[in-house]
């Protein structure tokens, strides 16, 4: 019998590069999936599903929506508390960003204010969903949970768009970013 020789272990195949994706934010700034504006300025949001600005990233929408969708009545208070904390921190950070945009040109400032209003509207809907989920019964929990997940995603997207708009405008104007 011929002894078997160990075959050298082959390295894993290389990870294919991500496709080049660009998106245009509400301010008309085109950014790639790394959050870099195509004009060389740093943006904050590469696409609807890849949020790279610090505020949008802190919301970690993909993971949190997964946590919400997987929550049960037994662990919902923990999940709801986590959502509350994330939204509170993001509201604070967006308020700081809003203050920093006061030196933008009028058109850029107006655009950010519209985007920020969308964040606040979606934030109100999200907070209402949190309250509804907190008060839901075993029989209404699934619907409340699904509504909460959708509203969280909508809120995170609004934050990403507003942040991208503000940061791109600030970078283009030389305004310091928080």
What this model shows, in words?
The strands form 2 sheets. Strands 1-2 form a two-stranded antiparallel sheet. It has a two-stranded antiparallel sheet with strand order 3-4. It is mainly alpha-helical and 178 residues long. It has 5 helices and 4 strands; from the N terminus they run E-E-E-E-H-H-H-H-H. Strand 1 and strand 2 form a beta hairpin. The termini are far apart. Residues 12-51 have low confidence and may be disordered. It has a domain at 54-173: Four Helix Bundle (Hemerythrin (Met), subunit A) (Up-down Bundle), CATH 1.20.120.
Short structural summary:
With 178 residues, this protein is mainly alpha-helical.
What's the SSE blueprint?
Layout: E1 22-24, E2 30-32, E3 45-47, E4 50-51, H1 54-59, H2 61-70, H3 76-100, H4 106-135, H5 141-173
Antiparallel strand pairs: 1-2, 3-4
Helix pairs in contact: 2-5, 3-4, 3-5, 4-5
């Amino acid at each position: 019998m011929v002894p078997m020789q160990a075959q050298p272990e082959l390295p894993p195949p290389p990870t294919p590069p991500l496709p080049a994706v660009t998106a245009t934010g509400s301010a008309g700034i085109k950014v790639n999936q790394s959050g870099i504006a195509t004009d060389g300025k740093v943006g904050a949001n590469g696409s609807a599903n890849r949020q790279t600005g610090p505020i949008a990233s802190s919301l970690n929408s993909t993971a949190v929506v997964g946590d919400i969708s997987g929550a049960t009545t037994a662990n919902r208070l923990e999940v709801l508390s986590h959502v509350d904390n994330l939204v509170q921190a993001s509201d604070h950070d967006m308020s700081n960003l809003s203050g920093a945009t006061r030196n933008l040109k009028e058109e850029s400032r107006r655009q950010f204010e519209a985007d920020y209003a969308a964040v606040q509207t979606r934030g109100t809907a999200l907070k209402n969903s949190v309250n509804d989920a907190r008060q839901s019964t075993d029989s209404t929990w699934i619907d409340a949970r699904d509504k909460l997940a959708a509203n969280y995603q909508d809120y995170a997207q609004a934050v990403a768009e507003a942040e991208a708009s503000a940061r791109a405008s600030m970078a283009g104007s030389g305004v310091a970013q928080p």
